[in-house]
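Checked the freezer inventory, then went back to the computational side. Two predictions to log before the end of the day. The first one is the construct we discussed on Monday; recording sequence and tokens without edits.
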Amino acid sequence: METYLVGGAVRDELLGLPVLDKDWVVVGSSEEAMLKQGYQRVGKDFPVFLHPKSKEEYALARTERKTAAGHQGFECDASDSVTLEEDLMRRDLTINAIAKSANGDLIDPQKGALDIKLKILRHVSPAFSEDPLRILRIARFFARFEDFAIAPETIALLRQMINEDQLAELAVERIWVEVTKALETHHPARFFQLLTDLGAHDKLWPAIPNSGIDRLAGLTSKITDPELRFAGLCSQSGFGLRDHLTRMKVPNRYAELALAANKYMDHLLIDNPRPELVLKLLTNLDALRRPKRFQDLLRLAQSIKNLTALRPLFDWNRHFQVVQGIGSDQVDPNLKGKDFGAALSELRLKALKAQQV
């Protein structure tokens, strides 16, 4: 039994980046032998185990054969005869197909270390095309490593996979996992722009215009919160956004903020809105009962405003505090229903007008 450090840990070490997670491949062993040594099986579809002490993942070296559509349609051979080189051959990119032995030697049959020096993302073999999830994974690496380019032959293969509609084989939940990971990278707009350039725009996010990707690119250095980044991406999407987010099963906390940004951002960016518009917007946004969402939208609006820096953002917080200061206890208690609501709104509007004098 031999163990090797593999994948992202070796790649990031060669790049001089912090190694956060370590994955290991085990050669010349079996599930029975791993269990006898105290390893705990955690892989449902693949032979992956947790180390009894470090809890790091150890996977038996394996080969895979495509048997069905999708990124899970594979038959796995994890017998003790599978070699390290065979295991590395099944991986997606050359930079992820490097192993490191216990004495520090690199096993790099795909020349991934050279591609790291050249800053190239290159697929290992034609088997790359058997897993449509790899389309999104390479786009995510493209977003994470902003100074890397994609090899021309890999670009051609990606286009072929997209033209064959392989993305349709993926569950929308799995697509969203890759989107959220991309939103956490240093340059998330590169993820969306690459897939758009490759022809996947209409298959993945037809409701999001190119201007949304451009806006996201400008916001990236100012906003790190993935929910706000997604809201910025969606803030110019028009009327089809709700159906798109529902179809993609986007989590509510992302969807609600994105829909609010899409509907109200242009109003928040107005330089000097009339008191009537201020009150209407605060009411429509339910700002008094949902102050956190309102503040999130203001953070996004401020960042968008900073992209042009022509004028400062309207002081929404000051006007919000004015409205907040007029409570229901200031309304005639004899009024009921709509009359009570109308009287409260009138008091708040009067206070806003006095604020702008």
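The second is the one RB wanted added to the comparison set:
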Amino acid sequence: MNIWIVEANSGCTLLYKAFMELLIDEDLVSGLLTALNQLTQVEFKGKGIESIDMGGLRWVYVEDKDTGLLFIASATKDVQPEMLRARLNVIKQSFYSEFQNDGKKFKFNGNVEMFKPFKETIDEYYGNWLAAESVTTIAEFFDILGAFQQLFFDILAIVQHKLPELQQERIQRRIEKMFVNYRENDYVKQNAELSKISFSRESGINIITINPSNCDMYVVEKQLINLMKRIVATIKEEIGLIESVKYFVEEGIFDYLMSNITLLKQLNLDRFLLQLFLQE
């Protein structure tokens, strides 16, 4: 698996981490990958590449139009694109958590040297993923974390960027209170991995530091499901079901669900998530 983080407009490589040897220069590859994505967007009217098989490898794209960044992973063709995309989403959220400025949206200032330490973070994730590949339940758990992290990110983006200030404040206060109560729970206090599920207005909800080797994965999944239910219910109560669904569509939540429906079915999350976002 190789990973690029690229500035989409310029093709500038912010970060490249290789776990496979490529026989050509990584900067040339990033330029080609960026150009292919731009060409696809022109031809398909804004729809970029999601995955492509090329040069004997499988390539998966995760694009963030708000920041102008492309997160790209390559792997052998036996690796499912859904798996690569879930891992890229984990890396993306971790990258923003580390490099956002005072809670503001990430903005590239031209200095690529500052991103080099993030390679150690990728190394840590990759080591966990390698260990998980021989244990199906752990591998699935990483996919679950990736899916929930992406959805938490999208939900809070609606609250922070689309709602009027008064509604935004009410919802964020309720989520803050929810997490205060969550941390006060005796079971959570006694479980270090559950305690890693956190919320702040600046960085949102963070679950990507959970170590599945140190916890009951079933319990963690149930906690994530419960938190997701309560946060979505809070939004629906504050702005109504119709407005909520409209914002879920605008933020791309349903696009994400349908693009990853095969993976979500494997994780037994497809029906729960579709009902959660569509029904009262």
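For RB: The mean pLDDT is 83. The chain has eleven helices and seven strands. Let me know if you want it refolded.
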